[in-house]
Amino acid sequence: MMTDTPSAKHILVTGGCGFIGANLVPMLESSGYAVRVLDNLSKGSTDYLEGSTADIRIGDIRDRAAVAAALEGIDAVIHLAAYGSVVESVADPEDNFDVNARGTFVMLDETRKAGISQFIFASTGGALIGNAEPPVDETSLPRPISPYGSSKLCGEAYCSSFAAAYGMSITALRFANVIGLWSWHKKGAVTTFAKAILEDRPIIIYGDGSATRDFLMADDLCDGIRRGLTANLPGFNVFHLASGREVSVAELARIMCETAGKPDHLIERKDKRAGEVERNFASFESARTSLGFSPAYRLEEALAETWRWMANEGAADPSGKA
Fold first, then answer.
1. 20 to 30 A from 99, CA-CA: which of 17, 18, 49, 63?
2. Could you read off the pLDDT of 144-159 as tens digits, one per residue?
């Protein structure tokens, strides 16, 4: 647990009622921060923050008046709010652009107008980089192959320009695939596989199962976000927050089945979906060097904890968005 005294004491977390926010907000509060949340509740629920003392404001990041009001008295912004599904971005690229690209621009512009200099941007790793020989790092050339990846690259570009043009401290954190508590409503592989096991349906793998990903426990991710906040580095900086371990989708399914105590659970394969990266895992060496970031959870430990929560509490997810 980091014990640094917060230099920015009042934090606005956009999308704070979602999966990441449900894990991040309590961690920030335990570290001495006062937290305000701005969320339109399209992906999350205020019930996720039950027991939190956060000031929750219901509003959209594209609504300048709502954003300006939420920024009053704030010292730093953590911008999590986004539409994060690659598949949904392919089906509806315009909506994805509007929320992720235009929404991020509105957040940056209103943050600038409010005289707030520190901004943490939740970016992505594999979707932004596209198909590249892993492990990728901060020097890898971005070539996104999905509208979602493009929207995050657009957000990073505006972060870079606002840092340079307005003297802001902006850190973009490229998330690996995040797993953990409060993820029942997510559309990622781990949640999808867990639901299939719990509902006694076949696990569906798109493609031949050789596609790879990098999975990071939410606790580790949130520790990385907090470290980025504490560091308050000048200018624009970008870091990968990842586990550094490449795992195939087929191997992930096998581990999930074993974790659930059902090693013979049926697995079926369907055609590969458009926009999804073939191989992806990232080096977190830069985040280790600059932020002191180092994941505490091994994949098997992270999956076991995620499974326990889903099996015992996940089906009672209060959001009703499963």
1. 49
2. 999 999 999 999 999 9
Residue among 128, 154, 152 nearest 142 (CA): 128
Q: Which two tokens stand for residue 146?
A: 């999905």
Tokens of 230: 């504490």
Cα first-last separation, the chain: 32
pLDDT of residue 3: 44
pLDDT at 7 over 70: no
Q: What are the DSSP E strand ranges found in the chain?
A: 10-14, 34-39, 55-58, 76-79, 118-124, 169-175, 177-179, 203-206, 212-213, 215-217, 236-241, 247-248, 267-270
pTM for this predicted structure: 0.93
Q: Domains in the chain, ordered, with CATH?
A: 10-182+215-244+280-296 (3.40.50.720)
Mean pLDDT, rounded, of the chain: 94
Residue whose C-alpha is closest to residue 298's, from 265, 255, 262, 240: 255
Burial class (CB in 10 A: 0-12, 13-18, 19+), 276: buried
CB 103 within 8 A of CB 66: no
Judge whether 35 and 29 are in contact, CB under 8 Å: yes
